[in-house]
């Protein structure tokens, strides 16, 4: 067994109900680390196997039994290294985008999977009836899930913990949205933490897999314990001393970004028609803290604690307890829709959590529906009397639950903005890339994030390469396109490392590549360097891109919605700006060693990806 | 001349009622720099990470303008 790992991955064939353990050799672990990296490696080989069997993966239905789900931790997960309770989930194909499926989540489940004795789980096939998987003290078992099919994520979690008499066990599950095969469905863990993008919950639903409960007392072994403990202490100190991880995030949560992004004029408002929300203060982190916060809620082993326990005391959206919302959810449900009503945002976000949906895609799609309706493109009979208008708090609350249960216009909200806008004859209204709704930063106000949205493998995603940390929160000129190709590439490759370790991306506000060497080295015993690590990140990004190429996704798909390329920002601190994507993209391809979005044979050889 | 101040995140501990919708009105002389405004507000320069003047990023040496809005941020991040 290798240090840092439990040395066991579980393969579950849901069709035959067969289960078997497998492991990866050390050279592969070092080349792909874990988490996202190993999942990408596994998916690449699986795609090749499917092709050999004659399956056309470009045409394959993402909800067919041929798709697979890979839950994975890494060598850092579940150790005393800070913020290491996370895990990564991937699928060969997303039902929302048709590209790769990918989600990274906090909580405690990742650590608890390792304590249960496993590094990861891969699900193949489809069960004929609803089932759930338990792994308790190293023993995996499939169980009938008919009693919990239909339950929300809160009731499912409590039911499983009581049934197994393990009140602190980790539960990953889907809600009604996943069961109803909603393409915006997520996989939730600890009720309020989501592997939240690209519709992974619908894949779980398509396999009739309701939940995975994990618990145990096993621990990963550390190669150089003393050195590791010293580095853990140093890293914790750095996190506490850093203004972002030591004060901003603990005090206000991620919602602290609302005001700074809005003041810089890149807070996408009214479905990205402007970057200024004149009443964003009402949905800011400061307002959340002052009026709605009960307490902070850290993930496993976290020293930052950006999670929020919240309530709405009065009014139509009253709720005695929930968690969140995070910055992205606040923006999508409350900013993009111009609903500056925190109570409604908290209620709609709560529905996303308990019914199991991605608030970014749901909120963004509701905003697109509001613009479609503003332009008179949604027939009256589809609106069913609901005022789908910018600024209407009832619209976001109603349409969110309607999406989970595929009711009325909610059907199209759950399908995501690309399919909805195509259905209503105005595809340009969808603010998505590769079918994934973009998150809360208008790239007309920060050009690097535009290049990242265009090139990110999973689609319109900020956490693939969070250049905002440098462009808005740091000292890099946000309007220039010079140097943005290199900035984006570096952020993307570094993030591939973080998502393979697996720990929290927020660590990177205080810890850099050298600190990641200081984690991975002592844990695994590998004499690893920063250069090797960055090359590993590049390898993972490239292999993921090679899977996209197999799915038919190339340079033509590395683009942005026309609005961002052609319509100047109308007002505010980013007024007059568009995204000059093409020159950045060409420079990026050159740096990457790609031609038209495809890694060249030379690059594939250099990264040892002739596999 | 009059200028307007907005403070964010933990800078509000000192000015709990000052926000985007309710800026602080301040009377300053011509040729006042942002640094002097920060001092007048009883903030230490090292507490301030980002300064915007009418939404545009400026340095501490920037001269303020009549009726301008100065937005002050400590180090923050998220995502």
TrEMBL record, chain A:
Belongs to the AOR/FOR family. Its cofactor is tungstopterin; [4Fe-4S] cluster. SUPFAM superfamilies: Aldehyde ferredoxin oxidoreductase, C-terminal domains, Aldehyde ferredoxin oxidoreductase, N-terminal domain. The keyword Iron-sulfur applies. Coiled coil: none annotated. It comes from the Archaea. This is Aldehyde ferredoxin oxidoreductase family protein. Keywords: 4Fe-4S, Iron, Iron-sulfur, Metal-binding, Oxidoreductase. It comes from Candidatus Heimdallarchaeum endolithica. The keyword ATP-binding does not apply. One of its GO terms (molecular function) is oxidoreductase activity, acting on the aldehyde or oxo group of donors, iron-sulfur protein as acceptor. Residues 5-218 form the Aldehyde ferredoxin oxidoreductase N-terminal domain.
Automatic annotation (TrEMBL), chain B:
Pfam families: ThiS. It comes from the Archaea. This is MoaD/ThiS family protein. It comes from Candidatus Heimdallarchaeum endolithica.
